[in-house]
Design a protein that fits this description.
Helix content is 68%, strand content 0%. It is mainly alpha-helical. It has one domain. The longest helix is centred in the middle third of the chain and has 17 residues. It is elongated.
């Protein structure tokens, strides 16, 4: 989200933390991610 920039401003850190938490909450588990990758590879 911030690229290679060091984010130090409190508001920016909070915004990035919220964005990361949202992404993490909807992400697949490691096992489910692997299963998805395998299914996609099998379809090629």
């Amino acid at each position: 989200m911030g690229g290679s920039v060091h984010i130090e401003d409190d508001a920016d850190v909070r915004a990035c933390t919220l964005a990361f938490d949202r992404l993490r909450s909807v992400a697949l588990s490691p096992n489910d991610s692997l299963a998805l990758i395998r299914r996609m590879a099998d379809e090629l």
